[in-house]
Design brief:
By secondary structure, the protein is mostly beta strands. Helix content is 1%, strand content 41%.
């Protein structure tokens, strides 16, 4: 199992197969409606043991869902499960009930978690993705009751609380308390599986790799401790694994909060049960390049049924960015009028889809027979985030998607591959690339000491740092390599830059912070602080691409540049930004004078509107001409002779994303696909007054994300315990109704930088 025919099914040029030191071939799908579980009887009790499993969630918080349990009659019960609120917890019953519940909420259905319950002489700890989340729990021993060691359910008198989702690499170790690092390891910031076949499993231990579809409970540890299965069949063997994560339907995205497809069978089957309005199902992956194939089995037509692709970030309502084929034989562009296309189809038919993003086409197949190329404009009409799989219907129409090659009935054309993370292209920045995300952007926290200290740990020499006190109401300070050490400018004022002497200086791997009085303080004793840092390209070079010369430090791989220039007098002009693509955001500020901060953003008038970083103002339309791939265009009103700085950014797939979304006013808010697991996020409402909110994955180490700072206000850090967002393996999800982030119909921009690209992300 050091390599897998199922993992890499890719055409030339697709990367990533060499990243995992150990690849996983199989998983088992547990469909809760089938009451699935595996069980066996142990020969003796054990107060020391370890349970490990990789899991992928599907249905979210319908009921308690047990991953593993051990029971003996009515008095000795225990195990590890997911509760209806989305927390993993350890459970014990010995005459009374006790639990140990983690604080994190786990509601990412698009990638995999690794769960380890380690018990040493009755004292248990729980670890998720290698991080200890619970400890010191007094756990029950494993029991010897008949058929009472159970994977995927719990026996409270009858088998119940079944797991709903996928499991892979399931192991029970008896007699030894192993660490999570015995089952997995950190590789460049990603928690990845290890080969566990050499572990000592103990007398009653077992290892399920699910390679035997005829008997999914087959133990491959060498012990022969096979488990009996119930509610599982050979069709529940899957090749969706932690090292080849396949697309499924996404329960976090929908037409509206009242029009949601009902998902089942590992989020592969969608039933559109509304009797009068079309419901849609959307895939968890989106693509911008490559050749992709999948199949739909038509389970029931109902009123009508659609299949095809949709923009990854299409808003709620009838999808405006779509290319689909209806069961009446017509095709539909952007949800508009019908055009005759192919054959009709009905219950039992298998509909194939070939999405060719190298040539911008989509072609549909009925039972293996091509219906011809349906559309040829998928490159020129590329929507935000790329194209995702879509299906729709109503009146109990239903279909099952097959994104894994082992479930295909027909063979696709040459070089068309499964929609799996293993087949996504290698990102420019990522854990298997020349540079990782945290070598281009990082967040560091520290506590002030009242004198001077070096704050390091960025993993690179930052060329721009943004500094903010968390526990005291001091200003946001920015220093960059071109303007030089201690030349501080504040995001929450219109002031010119200040240099009060040594205060915030760039050094190798970080910054030196020195205590100063008043609101310039960066190092007050006992106060807490955050620094966000970006890598550009050193001290800068002259750039003559524009009509006005600029000095630019550009990290073209990361899509980020720092620049300065002196504006001409009373004329429109251009300045070179040093990037190789058109910026998605440009921030401009006069540093020699007290002028406003101006922000151009792709989500606000396609970079022609102006936002102000230091105020709550809504977008002002028609201020700018959009920048190009080489220059920033500035109107005559910016020709004032002042010295200016700019920070320019463009999206880099898997590392950064700049976009917009529309709020729905619900705690079940919009899902935004970014193609990465966010490490840092800014949101700003632009159709009304609103502040600039700054979030990151260091100050909130787990979901929900509720801790924020405000870029336009010198206030202390604030927090909402129930959270505003979830950061996910492939984007973020709104979880609050605040008008500042999710007013119904409100328009918002966002700025996001990655922890890891989706290709390699674990669930958070």
């Amino acid at each position: 199992m050091t390599s897998s025919k199922n993992l890499i099914q890719a055409a030339a040029g697709v990367g990533g197969g060499d990243f995992y030191p150990y690849t996983v071939d199989y998983s088992a799908r547990f469909n809760q409606a089938d009451d699935p579980y595996l069980y066996r009887t142990l020969s003796t009790t054990y107060s020391t043991y370890t349970f490990s499993a990789w899991v992928k969630l599907t249905a979210l918080f319908v009921d308690y869902a047990y991953l593993f349990s051990s029971c003996a009659g009515s008095t000795q019960k225990g195990g590890v499960a997911l509760n209806p609120s989305g927390n993993f917890y350890m459970f014990k019953y010995s005459g009374s009930t006790s639990t140990s519940i983690e604080s994190a909420i786990r509601r990412d259905p698009s990638a995999w978690y690794h769960v380890v319950m380690k018990v040493s002489s009755g004292t248990a700890s729980l670890h998720i993705n290698g991080v200890q989340v619970l400890s010191g729990f007094s756990a029950n021993s494993l029991q010897t009751g008949t058929n009472q060691t159970i994977v995927g359910a719990f026996n409270d008198g009858s088998l119940a609380y079944h797991w709903d989702g996928y499991m892979s690499e399931v192991a029970l170790i008896t007699g030894t308390a192993y660490d999570p690092t015995d089952f997995a390891e950190d590789k460049n910031g990603v928690w990845v599986p290890k080969d566990i076949s050499g572990l000592t499993f103990g007398t009653d231990g077992f290892y399920l790799d699910f390679s035997n579809s005829a008997a999914l409970g087959t133990d491959v540890s060498g012990n022969g401790n096979n488990l009996t299965s119930s509610g599982l069949t050979s069709s529940d063997q899957m090749i969706d694994t932690p090292t080849s994560n396949h697309a499924t339907w996404n329960p976090l995205k929908f037409r509206s909060t009242s029009l949601k497809a009902v998902l089942a069978e590992g989020n592969l089957k969608a039933t559109f049960d509304d009797t009068g309005s079309i419901e849609y199902a959307y895939g968890t992956m989106a693509v911008t390049s490559g050749k992709w194939y999948w199949e739909h089995t038509c389970n029931a037509v109902g009123g009508e049924q659609y299949i095809g692709v949709v923009g990854a970030n299409v808003g709620e309502g009838n999808p405006s960015d779509s290319r689909h084929y209806r069961n009446n034989g017509n095709k539909y562009l952007d949800g508009g009028s019908a055009t005759a296309y192919g054959a009709t189809w009905t219950t039992g038919d298998i509909m194939g889809c070939e999405l060719d993003m190298d040539n911008g086409t989509i072609e549909f197949f009925k039972n293996g027979s091509s219906q011809g190329v349906a559309y040829t404009d998928l490159l020129t009409a590329m929507p935000d985030g790329g194209w995702a799989i879509m299906a729709g219907g109503y009146n109990n129409s239903a279909c099952t998607i097959h994104t894994s090659s082992d479930k295909w009935t027909y063979t696709p054309s040459t070089n068309f591959v499964a929609m799996s993370t293993a087949n996504l292209p290698e990102p420019t920045i990522g854990p298997n690339s020349a540079a990782t995300s945290d070598e281009n952007f990082n967040t560091v926290l520290y506590t002030g000491n009242g004198t001077s200290q070096n704050v390091t740990g960025f993993g690179f020499d930052p060329d721009m740092v943004w500094h903010k006190a968390r526990s005291v109401a001091y200003s946001h300070s920015i220093v960059d390599v071109i303007r030089g050490d201690s030349n501080v400018i504040f995001t929450n004022t219109t002031d010119a830059e200040q240099n009060p002497g040594a205060q915030l200086d760039l050094i190798a791997d970080g910054a030196t912070v020195t205590y100063r009085s008043a609101n310039l303080s960066n190092n007050q004793s006992g106060s807490t602080y955050v620094i966000w840092g970006w890598k550009a390209n050193g001290s800068g070079v002259s750039n003559t691409d524009g009509t006005t010369t600029s000095t630019v430090s550009a990290n073209t791989d990361a899509g980020f540049s720092i620049g300065t220039y002196t504006a001409p007098i009373s004329s429109a002009f251009t300045v070179g930004h040093g990037l190789t693509a058109t910026p998605d955001m440009v921030i401009i500020k006069a540093y020699s004078d007290a002028y406003i901060w101006s922000v151009m953003h792709i989500g606000a008038g396609n970079l022609t509107s102006r936002l102000q970083l230091s105020t709550t103002a809504a977008a002002q339309t028609g201020i700018f001409t959009a920048p190009t791939s080489s220059v920033i265009n500035l109107p005559a009103s910016y020709g004032d002779g002042a010295d200016y700085l700019f920070y320019a950014f463009h999206s880099v797939e898997g590392f950064s994303k700049f976009g917009s979304y529309t709020g729905n006013g619900s705690t079940d808010g919009p899902f935004i696909f970014t193609g990465m697991r966010p490490a840092w996020l800014i949101t700003k409402r632009i159709d009304s007054t609103s502040s600039w909110y700054v979030w990151d994955a260091v100050r909130d180490a787990y979901n929900p994300i509720g801790t924020y700072l405000v870029a336009n206000v010198a206030q202390t850090e604030q927090s909402l315990s129930t959270g505003y967002f979830d950061f996910l393996s492939n984007g973020f999800k709104l979880r609050d109704t605040s008008t500042e982030i999710n007013a119904s119909g409100g328009t918002y921009i966002y700025i996001a930088f990655a922890e890891n690209p989706f290709k390699y992300s674990n669930a958070r």
